[in-house]
Protein 1
Amino acid sequence: MQEEAIKKVRNIGIIAHIDAGKTTTTERILYFTGRNYKLGETHEGTATMDWMVQEQERGITITSAATKCHWKDAAINIIDTPGHVDFTAEVERSLRVLDGAVILLCAVGGVQPQSETVWRQANKYAVPRIAFVNKMDRVGADFNRVVTQIRERLKALPLVISLPIGSEDNYQGHCDVVSKTAWIWEADPKNPVGKMVKHEIPENMVDAVEEAHSNLIDILASCSDDILEKYMAEEPIEESLIKETIREATIKNMIVPVLCGTAFKNKGIQSLLDAIVDYLPSPMDIPPSIGYTQDGMEEVEIPADPDGKLEAMAFKIATMPHIGKLVYTRIYSGTLDVGDTVYNVTRGQKERVGRIVQMHANSRTEIETAHAGDIVALVGIKSIGTGDTLTHEKDDPILEKISFPETVISVAIEPKTKADRTKLSTVLHTLMDEDPTFKASMDEETGETIISGMGELHLEIIVDRILREFNVQASVGAPQVAYREGLRKKVQTEYKHAKQTGGRGQYGHVIMDIEPMPRGTGILFETNVKGGTVPSTYFPAIEQGIREALQQGPLCKKSVTDVKVTLLDGSYHEVDSSLMAFKTAAIEAMKIGMAKANPVLLEPICKVEIETPEQYLGDIIANLNSRRGKVMNMEMRGDMRTLDCQVPLAEMFNYSTHLRSLSQGRASFSMEVLYYVDVPPTIADKIRKDFALKEAAKQA
């Protein structure tokens, strides 16, 4: 009986480019399914799914919100995802746990840049999709052009199952190509949203619908032997067989059914709901999930079986006032009850499930049990991260974790009081739990707290939440590069530390070679002392002194790296020598030697990988050249160009914004620090002047 219930579940996501109408469409779905009694509007800040203050102020979706509604006899779990590229992690983790998706495409804008990004993310997880061409009432709406772009830009096979009746101001409804009927919107005095009424196909559209139906059969004939046989024998093809074939082909990702409408004007939403129920998969229809034994050696198939072993994934962490940590969880197999003890097999910890809640944006309904296929939130799980696997047995398989892109932009944040500093530490840990693409760390060289994210808007929202939601007073600075210092020539240095102040004195004498090493080597210490002139018991103190001295270079007090120091000789005193004396001698010898070794400022070089459509390649390379970047390699991946570059980190701040403007938002990049190289003389001079001014200000 439980299996029959699972077959009626649809776990879907609404994905699209920013401003394609995702949240408005979700609001209409909630209204027409009876989940909400009134319509929420994004532009008025009243949308149910955009519940955060920052979302309501900006009119954009920032965090993915989950809800559940019912249509016909199906239960639909919906996740409304953000469209902005800075919040791409929300789309990534949602698609990881969903069975199907509705991609919204603007009838005017067509397949826009972020549409391509979310499409690639859906391809990564092989998520079956249907397309809804929204905003058919807008000036410039062109349904056929969008269908062509689906084929050309997304490399998908569109299957048109509804045709628009009119467009722009004249948009009235649509024709259902499968059943050959028309649905036309009519005003209803009892209902302000009007109603869709079934009609005969308008005379001027009969030929177009017949042609679309013929094309539909042609495409389905390549997907189904039953339809092919009837098509070849010129026999009538039942509507039930057509729907069944569309469903099978959609689930196998062979086709993408395309519908049309205008969510804002309440046209086409009921047909979209029908398509979600008819064509998108239930948890039973998709291939079993893949887990791995805890040694990582074997793959394990995990079918959606309510009577099987519990396998669940925590895909999102949220902190709610008065509740604490909410763990959004997809149950892949088994059944979970309130009060159950679960094992976080990813972290090797045991936890108790205090409550299970069904989410509706930021409101909750408590339930007692969750079964395979359900998306719920758990309360009471404390130590958990995004992508962790929850089971009943500690030796059960681990589900594959969600991969997230690396952070690309950082800023410094400084709390204003000691109380704020303590509070900030807690808040940053909370935010890192919630958002795996947000990172916070302490810069050991500057003592500053550095926060990193996916882009300027991402960090702007984070800072806004720190200041307003968590009430931490802090100031935010501009990004800074952690420069270092290096040496360019080999020198020999000597220092004798001898002090006599009555009683036992201090004596330490060292002679050392200091030489530069290849970039990325780090710090090496060797001894080449002959004849026991310096006893080996003092070697650790000498090395400690050397490493301490390298923390502050002679140019700008930056740490010195890629250096080899060899202890050659020295002398000691049987009474006055000590560990501290030799450490002091090593520090002073290093200071003298580094000043003579032709010191140089070093800057971090990043490996940058850029993925861009071909037409923006020239502008992007020209921009990289202006940033002192070098293109190391270039290759094709599908219809995209991939550039491997090396660029100084100092030139990469705000790059995400510039890259977006260069490519209309269609290019993406990732970066990591590779090694340090010499700073060009003109830039080094400026850094040294700035440092000298700061030092002078300190002295004053």
Note: Confidence is low (pLDDT under 50) at residues 42-46.
Protein 2
Amino acid sequence: MDKILKKTLQDLEFPAVLQQLADRCHTELGKERAMAIVPLRDRDAIIRTLGETSEYLASLISDNRIPNHGFDQINGELQLLNIENTTLEIPGFRRIGNICSMVSQHKKFFKKFKEYYPLLFAASELIEPNTEIPAQINGIIDRFGEVKDKASDKLYDIRRQINQVRGKIGQSFATALNLYHGSDYLDDIRESVVENRRVLAVKAMYRKKVRGTVMGSSKTGSIVYIEPEAALKYSRELHNLEFDEKEEIQRILNALTAAIRPFSPLLLDYQRFLTEMDITAAKAKYASDMKALMPEINHDKKLYLRDAYHPLLFLSNRLRDETTHPQTIELHPDNRIIVISGPNAGGKSITLKTIGLLQIMLQSGLLIPVHERSSVCLFDQVLTDIGDNQSIENHLSTYSYRLKNMNRFLRKCNAGTLFLIDEFGTGSDPELGGALAEAFLEVFYERDAFGVITTHYANLKALADELPHATNANMLFDGKTLEPIFQLVLGEAGSSFTFEVAQKNGIPYNLINKAKKKIARGKVRFDATIAKLQKERSKMAKTGSRLEEEESKAREETARLEKLNAKIKSKLENYQELYDHDQRMIQLGNRVNKAAERYFQDNKKRVLVSELLRIVETENSKRKKKTAHQAKAERTKKAQVAQEVQQKVKVIREKKKVALKKATLKAENKPRPVFKVGDRVRLTDGKSVGSIDSLEKNKAIVNYGMFTTNVSVDQLELVERK
């Protein structure tokens, strides 16, 4: 791939993206490296970098979070290590030890979870492990940044002597303090510290009485600070020991520096690795903030951006709680060039910049905010001509500058080029500039280049209709409200809505009408036709959207009914199986009952056993051999179906009981009839009708013809009077 020009990156506002990326880095080196990112030239490197960022993005929502990678840079220490006979300071050793420990943590983590993060694991495997450096540093410097006593035998001995001398100084000072305090030579504060030494606070009038060295006095001169003579001797000894301690510490640090010096290239690799991890983490956080992902990268020269957002616009609108409109655009060998037209402020330039910026971001290893079904290809070069490019320093007009830019396009444009031109052909006489722009576009087309341009020129719209592998597109505009809809539609040129927008902005109608008369009648009719077609297209789009919604609802309802039907069918089959099983059991029970009855009559066991065996063999011949698991599953299924049936039967019985209870209550609430002999009656829970033969003490003898029965009159209901 060719190097993408700095001008192209600026046209597409790529530095602003890098600044937002740098703001998400933890380390200063990461911020510097992020601002220096440029599009990669190697396809494999692009795919690998995108893959690493995708893996890190997945870790942000995972329980297996990647270890912290924040570190303090060691550039100064690395420079000193490259100079002989230099010594690092203790903070430098701690920074080096921290970087070594951090790299070790990352290597262990990625090795443990290499199935989840294969690309990051592969990157960590390129770094040589080293436990010697942190072990040496930790053996000499403690976690508080002090050299350990046991860093050397000599240092241990010196510090032991220092502690002993300090003890003696303390004892001698305490003796002198008690002596002179008792003599009332000391001020109320008794003691102080001067030049890191304990001194007596002696009243000025008694300074001759106290033996020792004067170390100073108070501002008023009323107090003289004196180090006692007894402590002075030990102070000199302590000073000598402290000097020896410094020399020994310097020697130890010299030796440690010499031991680490050979590992200078490895430490540089460690710092680079952690810097790359910082940038990868920043890319992942940036992707998370703008809901970005890694789309499919194809080899077919196909660019399909579905629901693509402009990253900068998306993030700024989100802060203001405003809506960002996504765009869907497709370029492929059969549709290589798209000419976008339509009114100003309709979103043409943003759409153009979105395509270019997302392509640059992708080829720089950044994830892009598009739908997961998007598919992209890689271009050798991206050429842009966007915005007002008047060059003051070169004394060039806008049009002259754009012509120089077109000359560069003509030199570089080929089948691996994506060109993006905003307001193509403007800056000169409309007819002449349009003709020249048309010639340029034909050259780009003949060289099989891919591109998107925005224009108001009718001849470029017409050319896009004529060329087989080019197409028109427009940004939808509401003809009634004259508000942009921010939606790109392929296959149709857009009207500029020049006079409509002018009218909306308060330009007098008579002036607009006068302007219309000054231009060719055909042009006005052509523009009006386009505007009308665009309105119709918008109306059809709304109708299509409504029909799609209704069709979607119908499909959902059909799927629901099919699911319900399948469920009912399954239940019916289960109930049928249960019924068939119960019927078979009844028949089997009847056969066993007959055999038992025969045995009861003739008491012949052999016949009984023979009959039972025959019944069992007959039943077994109908069975299929099943595994224990199948048998268990079938038993479970039968038990569930039986339980369900019993539950339903129970519910039905409960309903019948409730209905009967209601009927009984209703009957009780009715006025009880007075029965007479000869009345036709029936029992409340029966169907047969009889006549009353006699009545006596709330009892009635009812004659049913074949028989009579004696019942309580409370159980009777009147059918017909005599």
Note: The first strand starts at residue 186 and ends at 194.
